Task: structure prediction
Amino acid sequence: MTETKQHASGAEARRRDSAATKRALLAAAREVFTRQGYDNAGLRDIAQRAGTDKRLIGRYFGSKENLFAEVVAEAYEKMLLSAPEATHATAVALLSGAEPDNPDGLLLTLRSASSERAAEIMRDSIERTCEAALADALIGPDAVGRAALLLSICAGVHLQRNILHSRSLTNADNTDRLVPYLKAALDAIAATPAAAPAGDSVDQSPQSD
Result:
């Protein structure tokens, strides 16, 4: 093997090792952040779980905040969205317990929400990705606000059913009966709002004597 080929082979091996190390750190960080929350998670613990040196976190991510931001982006990547044409499928998935590939996203959120900085990172991630994507799929006014409402409903049902294990929502006999109610709630927000009749407006201008 020539010197040039040896150098290229060595560089490729280092890139593969770097990618593998970064993936291991992300996986370990996700586990630790989900279990302990942002404030209680230690970089040494994360590095030990990844089987690597703590200093590599600084090399690959720069800081604990940046590492958490990447974990959050990955955890929220497949968040269940309720686009207008998919409200029935969303209702079925939520009530049947069919979760995305990353069901720990809500636990990560709950256990880190008490940290002001972590909450800011999570809020920014949701607004830039999930909320923005859903708002783009909505027609009519207040799309961003309606998108936030849809995400809140989905997160609430997920919390009640899969984290708190509500007996009413985990009872298999209830699933088919409850789907139409949840779909109707999602439809009420996802559907294009009808224009309010002129007579329904309330004149709140000051009245003269």
